[in-house]
Amino acid sequence: MYTFDSRIRYSETDSQGKLTMASLINYFQDSSTFHSEDLGLGLGYLHKRHLVWVLSSWQIVVNRYPRLCEHVTIGTQPYDMKGFLGYRNFAMMGEDGSYAAVANSIWSLLDTRTGKPCMVPREMVEGYCLGEKLSMAYAPRKIAVLPGGAEYAPIPVKKHHLDTNQHVNNQQFIDIAMDYLPEDFGIGQMRAEYKKQAYLEDVLKPYVAVGDNVVYVALRDEAGAPYVSVEFSGGSSRE
Fold first, then answer.
1. Is this structure's pTM higher than 0.85?
2. What is the pLDDT of residues 171-186, one digit of tens each?
């Protein structure tokens, strides 16, 4: 597993001095970026070949949220590549080596000239040196719509939502969805299913439904088709 060490910063914490889900996602996203860049398979490699990895789904399970100034280790490991799909685990560990959080993700490799999926090159599969699948309770990629919800005011996509691919970054979608969580809702698991990319000046229409210890948020386009569906399950206390 590829790892790097860090320390929880004040800018990454909530009002209780604990790491936020959005910051956890950024750590995971940064670890995969560092890993790819260190292997020579990063942004430059992809740009030269007109390729881009687009996130298809997240499953993040939180055992606890590290506190301000805590030393942590963040790790990531690709464990499979099939056709145009890549599968990658993530973990955040405390100083004692225990898992604060673990995650699974599925990515699609696209041709930037056509926008269509393309096969993962052999040199990429060999370069990543696929490892063992992390031990965790894997959930399905598909997220069912929770009925009985309500629609909220539309949100226009602004420049600060975009990443180097010029579309809304996956973490930004989750950050927006979290605004609709009930007060003091402790996220034990977050699942996200990404349907399509959103670009500058697109409009996100939130649909929110609350169930038994679960909150479902869909950010939809103006025709009602989802950009992303997110499911938050209660579990980890923010106290």
1. yes
2. 889 999 999 999 889 9
CA angle in degrees (0–180, nearest 5) for 146-202-85: 65
Tell me the two tokens of residue 190.
């977050």
What local confidence, expressed as pLDDT, does residue 236 receive? 60
Quickly tell me which residue has 């965790």 as its tokens: 136
The residue assigned the tokens 């698991």 is 189
Find where tokens 């950050």 sit.
175
DSSP codes joined into one string, the chain: -EEEEEE--GGGB-TTSBB-HHHHHHHHHHHHHHHHHHTT-SHHHHHHTTEEEEEEEEEEEES--PBTT-EEEEEEEEEEEETTEEEEEEEEE-TTS-EEEEEEEEEEEEETTT--B-PPPHHHHHHHT--PPP-S-PPPS--PPPSS-EE---EE--GGGB-TTSSB-HHHHHHHHHTTSPTT--EEEEEEEE-S---TT-EEEEEEEEETTEEEEEEE-TTS-EEEEEEEEE-S---
